[in-house]
Amino acid sequence: MLTESLGRFFEQSGAEWVLWLLLVLSVASVMVMIERLLFLTKQSYDFDSLAERLNGSLLKGPEAVTSVVQEHARGAALAALSAAMDSWQDGASAIAERVASAITSERVRYERFLVILGTIAANAPFIGLLGTVIGVLNAFGQLAGALEGDSRTELVMGSISEALVATAVGLAVAIPAVIAYNYFKRRTRVAMQQADALSKLVIARRLSVHEHDEGS
Predict the structure, then answer these.
(1) SS3 93
(2) Is 148 left (phi over 0), alpha (psi -120 to 50) or beta?
(3) Vertex 35, ends 76 and 110: CA angle to 5°?
(4) Is residue 192 within 8 Å of residue 106, measured between CB atoms?
(5) Which of 39, 59, 94, 210 is the most exposed place for a label (fewest CB within 10 A)?
(6) In this structure, what is the dihedral angle of CA atoms 7, 10, 14, 16, given to the nearest 10 degrees?
(7) What CA–CA distance (Å, rounded) separates 202 from 173?
(8) Is residue 30 a contact partner of residue 180, using CB atoms and an 8 Å limit?
(9) For residues 125 and 112, what is the distance between their CA atoms, to the nearest angstrom?
(10) Cα–chain-centroid distance for residue 67?
């Protein structure tokens, strides 16, 4: 009884709403991709050049380092190095703690909206499959009331063909979302690693200054 009721419900609702839902998810996915690309573009910088400048400025003192950081660093690197220089007088341990906190905060900014991409990537194929199942149910419903012969075969095959469109659309929405999600996650990981590497240069210099002061 329940099976028949659900079958009639799906037959009446049809699969078109699934395609509209996938269209909405596709638009949301593209919007997130564009927003994240713009965000990452604004945070980009030349890591090798910054590392070289930072190494040179560390020998000149905190003021020179701060100047280089403000001028050449962006994104997670700027946050981590700014936190490091703000804690310069407090010692290497304080610098490490402040840098770790800054990188954690930056990771949240870098991963903003990625949960949307991940959710779309994981669920769009299943939503498309739902549309296909509903379409197949409709096809069998039409089969039961169709005439014998070629017209019946053409009707059923046409219905099944339309039903498979939902699965194809689901995959078309999911695949770009998966690629974009993995790309943005990689960019985030690299940005955090670079920020950590740059901050360790500051920590190493602070330790050497501390050892020199003790030796004196």
Answers:
(1) helix
(2) beta
(3) 25
(4) yes
(5) 59
(6) -140
(7) 44
(8) no
(9) 23
(10) 32
Query: How far apart, in whole angstroms, are the C-alpha atoms of residue 79 and residue 167?
Result: 44
Give 3-state DSSP helix, strand, coil % of the chain, rounded to 5: 90, 0, 10
Q: What is the pLDDT of residues 12-70, one digit of tens each?
A: 666 788 889 999 999 999 999 999 999 999 999 999 999 999 988 888 888 888 899 99
Decide: helix, strand or coil at residue 138.
helix
Taking the CA atoms of 158, 163, 167 and 172 in sequence, report the sign of the dihedral they define.
positive
Which one-letter DSSP state was computed for residue 113? T
Q: Give the whole-angstrom CA distance, residue 36 versus residue 2.
A: 46
Pair of tokens at residue 9? 């419900």
Question: What pLDDT score was predicted for residue 197?
Answer: 94
Distance of CA 21 to the CA centre of its chain: 21
Cβ within 8 Å of residue 16, ≥6 positions away = none
CA angle 188, 181, 16 (to 5 degrees): 155
The answer for 14, left when phi > 0, alpha when psi is -120 to 50, beta otherwise, is left
Mean pLDDT, residues 188-215: 82
